Amino acid sequence: MRRGLAGLAAVAAVVGFAAVASGASRQASGLYDARYCEIIELRGTPPTATATVWNTIGLNQCPAAQWEAFDAAALARELGATFVILNGPRHFLMDSATATTGGVRAFHGMRMRKVATIPIRSAADLAQTPYTDRTIGRTNTWVWRKGRTVFELVAPGGDTYVMQSYSQKADPALSLGKLGSLGRRLHLPLGWRYRTRKLSQELVLTAKGRATILQDELQNTYQLATQARRGRRTRHAVSMKGRTRTVPATTPGTIEDHGTVSGTPFGNGSIVLVGKLENGRFDGTFRLTFPRGSIIGTASLPYTVSGNEIDFRGTSRFTGGTGAYRGITSGALATRDHNTLDGQSGVLSVAGSAVY
């Protein structure tokens, strides 16, 4: 349940001002470094659960004494909700925003406006994976004025994401003044960069029904601003070989392999594979990095052990990417990883096809 709660907070945090089923279009200004908080109430259970997000922006600055007095469990009982998340405080970074929002209500005297209703159809909707795209329903316009400093992530292949808000939930001491050096703290995937940039002209980001966003490990939220991929999508044969070895895991309770890959159609690159061994199967995620972009995906590999060797045979799938591989998809890719029990001599093969 704790993992689900964290995931729901992540889902809500990326929404900001979002489209609701009905409401009025509103414009808010003076948002730069504006403090806000959210209450998220989940009703029901997947696949028919719904999360409603209430936000203080434009109504108050989420006074600390009031916010710290909230008890999530007690509030859930009071509202008749499955559970409640107290998400905040957070700070917006754009100067103004226009979006469709809903009505206003008070929670123990703190006024909040409905900004989103999010369907929760599966456990995957509650997943919280840093540096992984999430596409959400949202109609909004963010505006940063000329001369403003923006904080960006640059993905392999050149895609850029602009930070829309920073969070003080994971790190209460994080402040606007510390964002310039944030890149030294972040555990960025291979090939990713964090940068600051002073705007030579006004920056306007729009979302017309859909927005692509991601978060870093501190729950700071970024929206996709530019993408490098152009042209028509086509089908490509995939035939890759690789070498892997087990390294100390960055996530407790998981196995983590690093290595190199090469082959058709991507060329030479690297792989990071993270997952768990349970019930005779490895289930996990991977990230491939190449000069023209990166690819993420999932793997499900039953295994057998013979002597000092372990053999994984199953399937993997591409689920997304950056740069030239943005929007990549695949069917089941035949995947094998033959290794020694110490994990230091993995021989990997992947075959199938992908569209990008």
Concise synopsis of the structure shown:
The protein has 356 residues and is mostly beta strands. Helix content is 7%, strand content 53%. The strands form 3 sheets. Strands 2, 3, 4, 6, 7, 8, 10, 11, 12, 14 and 15 form an 11-stranded antiparallel sheet that branches. An 8-stranded antiparallel beta barrel has the order 16-17-18-19-20-21-23-24.
Word description of this protein:
With 356 residues, this protein is mainly beta. The chain is 7% helix and 53% strand. It has helices at 2-13, 64-69, 72-79; strands spanning 24-29, 35-43, 49-55, 83-92, 96-101, 104-107, 110-120, 134-136, 139-144, 149-154, 160-167, 193-198, 203-208, 211-215, 221-226, 235-247, 255-264, 269-278, 281-290, 293-306, 309-321, 329-330, 333-340, 346-355. The longest helix is centred in the first third of the chain and has 12 residues, at 2-13.
